[in-house]
Write a structure and sequence with these properties.
By secondary structure, this protein is mostly helical. It is built from eight helices and no strands.
């Protein structure tokens, strides 16, 4: 017979403290999905609400962050699936007066479009790796997949992005 030790439940103040400690990280991840400030804030807010409601189901408070990042990624993917309007990318704030600025924004747009074409898991892995500089082990824990699978997903995603950028560069090098 195995003795089970009851884990202490996450209190409201503990929950708030954990959320506030990484709120910028949560925002960056959400922004990586939608490329829109207001939508990213909405996604984070919704994920926090979902996590707060479900915090009693968290078996081990020590695993709060992987659990929350999974909720955040799922909320962002759900938002993208159900979004009926085009994603705003904030070009109204840009001053495209020089050719270099225009090239920069064209490349940024191409990367964003390529990211949108990735499936949800691949996009999540790349966003967590680039936006949050997480290790493969951390991402594997968040997504509940073996680390080798995460590496495979990551490198396939990078290959896809590289191919998309190369085709974008080839298209933009043609005179108009």
């Amino acid at each position: 017979m195995q003795l089970q030790v009851k884990k202490r439940e996450l209190t409201d103040s503990d929950f708030l403290e954990l959320i506030q400690a990484r709120e910028n990280s949560f925002y960056r991840i959400a922004y990586g999905y939608v490329q829109n400030q207001e939508d990213a804030k909405d996604i984070v807010q919704e994920a926090v609400c979902k996590a707060y409601i479900g915090k009693k189901r968290l078996r081990d408070p020590e695993k709060f962050y992987p659990w929350f990042y999974r909720i955040l990624a799922n909320t962002a993917c759900s938002f993208l699936r159900h979004a009926s309007r085009a994603v705003s990318i904030g070009l109204e704030e840009a001053d495209l007066s020089s050719t270099n600025d225009e090239e920069h924004w064209n490349n940024t747009l191409a990367i964003q479009e390529a990211l949108k074409q990735l499936n949800g898991k691949t996009r999540t892995v790349i966003i967590l790796k680039f936006y949050e500089n997480m290790t493969f082990a951390e991402i594997a824990q968040i997504l509940r997949k073996p680390e080798a699978s995460i590496k495979s997903i990551y490198y396939r995603g990078l290959k896809f992005l590289k191919e998309r950028m190369q085709s974008h560069e080839a298209e933009s090098s043609y005179p108009r």
